[in-house]
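FW: tagging you since you asked about this chain on Friday. Here's the raw sequence from the shared folder, copied in full. Didn't touch anything.
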Amino acid sequence: MKSFWTRLTSSLFKTTPQLLYSLLISIFPGMGHQQFAEVYKTWSDFELFQLLQNKDDYQEEAIEAASAEMNARKLSEKMRH
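HL: got it, structure written out here
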């Protein structure tokens, strides 16, 4: 069974990571690392790259969760920068 966070992000229209992040934070202001981790499992590699290239726009928990997801996907560190 899919988690709440996975169902939520799957049902949202495709948009920029910044807009989706802002929407999630406005609906669920207390999101933490685990919730971000669930959401980022549904994001494309490109969306995660965009997030990590714009770290100033995100909370530390969001950045850590995105980085962990990139590691789980075994994406090259060179590709992140």
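FW: The mean pLDDT is 78.
HL: agreed, and The chain has one domain: 15-74.
FW: great, closing this out.
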